[in-house]
Design goal:
This protein has 329 residues and is an all-alpha fold. It is built from 13 helices and no strands. Helix 3 packs antiparallel against helix 4 and helix 5 runs antiparallel to helix 6.
Amino acid sequence: MSLDALQPAPPKRIAVIDMARGLALLAMASYHFTWDLGFFGYTDASLTAFGGWKIYARSIASTFLFLVGVSLVLAHGNGIRWRGFWKRFAMVAGAAAAITAVTLVATPDSFIFFGILHQIALASVLGLLFLRLPALLTALIAALVIATPFYLRSPLFDHPALWWVGLPTFTLRSNDYVPLFPWFGVVLAGMAATKLASSSGLLGRLGSFSATRLTRPLVFIGRHSLAFYLIHQPVLIACVWLASQIAPAPVETRQDNFLRSCQVSCEQTRDSAFCRAYCGCMLDALGQDGTLDALYGGGQGADLDAHVAELAGQCTQRTDEAATGGEMP
């Protein structure tokens, strides 16, 4: 008898889950296209970093990771299919390493050192440890993992070698940062939900749905998710780059870019008049001591964050005093 005969039988694919993954991929492509427009100067570069776009991005990432948990249970819940598992892991981990290398060259100040593919690769391995746990216990651990960054941040995790854990005391800058905490908790939530769906019979009912003519493209994309993920962004960037050769976006200085980004961020909590004065104060303060160059040069660290926070506090106080009748010094 061959070793292959001892492997668990491959599970039947559920079209509804592939459709959900396909929709998430299309949503991700729309987000990346908006980011690309900002990168090439056609829109505010900070547009996707705040407000509704930020919620949109986190919703997409959560959907992907939730479906990773679903897939782990469906594929290996009745016994780990080691050959298929390691083949898939090697593909995802290799793609993650490639994205790190490419972005390190293309955007060194905010390269992707631990993005969603890195998280998927790590979560795929760690998730195997939770396959046999009861659904409710898995859900409880998921909640604890998601809550961890709110109470367990420590200077011990400020070293670059531990940034992937997700518990540093400062805000990291990366074009795609999806660390172990809290995002592995979303994978565990997907695993818990799938176990509950299986025991309740819901999974069987979902499996009875077949793709229609309209949904087959989504199923196709969902079944080739890694290929779509790797291909779509180079294609989108190439399209925007080509447009930039025909109709270039207006050239914007670093100072103009900072003021625009600061204004968008500030207006999430304060009015426009306050934000114009506050952002002007911040630009002056950051420019005087070279901090602006450090920020745009990819600077990271608790000291830099603390210094920026100190300047922000000073500018907030000055702007509030000016608004109540005082004078800006």
